[in-house]
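Hello K.,

You asked for the raw outputs rather than the summary table, so here they are, unedited. I folded two proteins back to back in the same session to keep the settings identical. This is the first:
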Amino acid sequence: MGVRFQSQMGFDKVVDQLVAAEKIPVEQAKMRKEKVVEEKKEFDKLQKALAELDKATNSIKGKTDFYHLKVESSHPDILEGQIKGIAQLGTYEFEVRGLAKTDKQLAFGFPDKDKTTVGFGYMQIEREDKDPVDITIEPGSTLDKVVEQINQTDAGVRAMVINTGYTPDSYRLLVVSEKSGKEAKINIDEDTTYLEFKNQVAGRNLDVLFEDVPVTSDTNSLDQLVEGITFRVKRAEPGTRIQVNVAFDLDATVAGVKSFVEKYNDIVKFANEQSKSPKDGEPGKLAGDASIRQVMRSLQGALFPGGGIGEGKYRTLADVGVTTNPKTGELQYDDAKVRGALTDDYDSVANLFIRTRNGAGLGDRVADKIKQFRDPTSGILKSRMRGLDSIIDNQDKDIARRERQLGEKEESIKRRFSALEGQMANLQSQGQFLAQKFGGEGG
């Protein structure tokens, strides 16, 4: 029995070794697939980095993208402005003589808002730009009920009960026009309701002097006074002259250029990491891949065309403070020099990046290259990704075929060794029988 047990263990070990040997080609196929999967992941990283560069490029390649303006007011607590489109540089002078007001009608007081009844009958509300609205006040109505009825109409007004705190009749009905300006003036004919109203605030238009020219609006906003700018008036201050300056927003422009440099450098770092030689550490997963080299050559050609592309004083990136590190290929950004160039000649710096009458700027050139890389039919990155997907698909099929064959071989090996084990057991039994027989006769 002990011999048979040892024989069984020996057979099992041999079977395991044979099956393990048959698994080697399958594991090798899986490792080859994993290598391609890792390559695809790296190309995904490159595509995302290019998408980020494209986003940064789009923020500086057009005139409306590159040119950032801001509005500076000498009295922002009185008047401030906001850029809404393409505006002209310049300084403007304002004087706010009066704000636009909504018309407000106030009824005389009542001791409460929900118990004491008002007179019943008809009330008519008129506003300059709307048809009159008739409201029927039913017997037993309180101030709260009157407010509810007014607010349910389309009279262009809003009603509320306010508690003035003055006794004995502290509760009063206030009706306010929903629009400001003198054209929004309201008139209330209280008729038989005994809700005697007083014009608490008369509706009026905004009154502003702009460059000593009177201008007006039914709101406290001037949207069409100067093209591309909205001015918002906060309070009136007659006699105070306000200087409003429309100037270049250097901080916003610099942020766009700096973001472009950073996103470009992310791609350079990625390419350098991929091309690292084994002696410098673990090589990149895309080491030797021609696609990476092609991408970098194209981007560098777009950024550094021979002879420069700008107009005027600044014709290259180096002229404005963006140079190349000769060792790494990354862009080096000099904030002080960039700001100095923008302050000195904003238009000349802009012409480096934006499209002008002389052709595409750096922004357009880089954006076009990225578009070519990502073209779904002919783009180098899309083509490379399709190739990797095809390889992975074929490898999946190959692995599945090998695993089926492995399963069949494993079953075959087990069947053959099971039969051999039976034969060995039979021979062992016969040997024991003969040994006993011959041994007995000899005795």
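The second followed immediately with the same parameters:
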Amino acid sequence: MTLRGASMNPDSALGKGVEAQARWSLRLLGGFKLGAFVGGDSVALPGKRERVLLAYLALSPNCRQPRRKLATLLWGDASDEAALDNLRTCIWGLRKALGDTGHHIIASEDEDLVLAAAAFEIDALAFRRLAAQSDRTALEAAANLYAGEFLDGFGIESEEFESWRRGEVARYRDQTIDVLTRLMTLLGESGETERAIATGIQILGLEPLHEAAVRRLMQLYGESGRRGAAVQLYRTFADALRTELDAEPEAATRLVFAEIPRGGEERTSGPAAPDVKLPRRSTHVARPSDVPGVPTLPVMRPALRLSTSLAAVAGALIVAIALISYRPFVLLSTDSGITGERAASASQSSAISVAVLPFLNLSGDAGQDFFSDGMTEEITAALAKVPDLKVVARTSAFQYKGEKIDVRTVGQALNATHLLEGSVRKEGNRVRITAQLIEVGKGTHLWSESYDGQLSDIFATQEEIARTIVGSLMTPLGLTPGERLVANRNIDTESYQQYLRAKALYRARDLPAALKLLEPVVARAPAFAPAWGLLAQIYVVGQNFSIEVTSGSQEEARLAVQTSQDKAEMAARESIRLDSRNAVGYAVLARVQAIHHGKWAIGDDLFKQALALDPNEPDVLLNYDITLAGEGRLKDALNVMERLRRVEPFVPIFNIVAAHDLHLNGQRQAAIATFEAIPPDAGGGYWRNLWLAEAYAAAGRYAEAADTLLLMPSSQIDRRLVEDAARLLRNAPKKIEALDALPTLARELSFVYVHVGAPDRAMENYARMIEIQSGVDDSVWLPELAPLRKTERFKALVRKFGLVDFWRARGWPDLCHPVGADDFVCA
């Protein structure tokens, strides 16, 4: 069964008496029209609300809605009883117009109204089915079904209705642009240049500053010998961007312009461009049939009205390319509630930022929290793939789980202009997801919807929710033809649930438990790229918790670390092989190549690839920060971490690393303040307590440093070692005379040696750890360890692991500079 518009079995109780073949044709795109199949005569409905009721039921999941929700939709602020009375009258009128005396077409089931979908052929549902396909015939059929804006020119006095209609308008407009974009590509590939150009013009009729369409049109003109039209199109488009958005064409567009073929004769196709100015508001719709020899494609009606200034620019653009008559392009609308800021989102990505709040678990079983949390993260990840949509607080939002929130307060705290909230009810293999989008500034709901389906359909549900949200925000999807927001679906339902459980455990930093679930998942579903990406991240993070320098031989420790690195690299490469857009896979591979293989330049380039794919992915930024710190690029590391904190302000481990970066950069008091604001038992508390003790000791607060060390969990470090280190700190800064009597401390605790007059012992531990990890530990850059960095042993180590060659090629770090041709010095 599909998630929407499921056909009704005519033999069921509801469908009894309804013919198996549809009796009516319901048209919702371009207006509203209900017609009978036999004879094609229109069916007259008594009023607007009857039409809204029919349209809303037709597009509802399973064609079912509660009466009270319908009453609110149709009458808004009317009192409950009055609205329900009005609804009964409305239902009666609709049944009468349909001849539904037996209540077979519109049935009552408890508190719900249910429409017999089998009785109708609905253009909007047919459009969606066709738009989801990839073959040319289906795309052309979908394009022909789009006759204009959803319920164009139709309205009632109800904010609930208007909010719903705006969301549907955006959904179908966005899907149509996607259909036309894919169709344009297929036409161009098959050599049908004129039809491809005409299709591109239709895209611009819906979204005038659609840069990808402009680029492709320029290429088509250039390839067909019309260089002048391509050049003029670029210049007029660039002028429009500057005039309307104070922006410049993207680098890719400038590159296409630079590569327009030069020389040769200028070929023309179609009528020459008239040397006239077009009226500011033409009533003629641009049709491909206006071009001689071009087959007819559907008429496109703009979704929004046009600003006066852009109308003139758009008119000049169409005249310049000399193809077809012009209907004004669209940008702004005052009556639809769309602001210029939102319309400009394609070029100003920071204008809209969305935070997805944790979905409520309504399953009645707390053990299903992993699933509702998983849906939150999966929908967030899908939205993050939209290039011009800024998704913030992917993890920070979970701090509001189960809390009653004030929209404006939460939006400001998360730096979000919009919030998405919802709920998940899972019963066996049935799933219902309800979601609603809220505009923070006004506190108003822009869109809300419920989705019912099987667990096996969960990826399609996630895709539909994400696309609807993007459409509601009037933001272009920005995907390549055939690309989906939820691309990885090669997994069975049980393995997928185990994957979601592992994600929840990883977020809680219970890495052993996460690995125990995830390793069998990739064995059962080896083609599921997200599981490999998560596995790679767990391996690369987990090795920091599994190394104990004092347990076993150095060679055994080195082999254990090497195994962890190899697993991380293997998982990262597999995630990239399966999904070339897996940003986390690139980031883990970059970290392994740089820190553990000493291939710093390769790692640097891989991080650039990861950031190009997803510049705000938290795990990408975290891995990059750690690598930069290891390289000695301390200011760069701090900048990356501040960027991460802007998009993720409330994740403890990120704030812990940020505080450590502050300390590395000499901002000790700011570091201590940041550490102290984080609870000792927070996620990542091991590092919070260790690094805060380092900062306290550097500030001469030795007793506090000792007390803080004792907060470190025994499960992650030998308690005896911690107690030895705390005892030494309580005697600091008194120097230990009998150095041979010093206890052997783990690498993490090596800083203690510096404060009791034994820096050589500290250097031994750091050197040993560098040998084991095959990489540089960022703690060697602490300000108080400056004497160690001046030793020949330190210089030999950084040379051995390729850092000096990397610095010479890519730039020297903050604390080091070259001396002569072959030497260097670090402060």
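The first strand starts at residue 24 and ends at 27.

Happy to rerun anything if the numbers look odd on your end.

Regards,
P.
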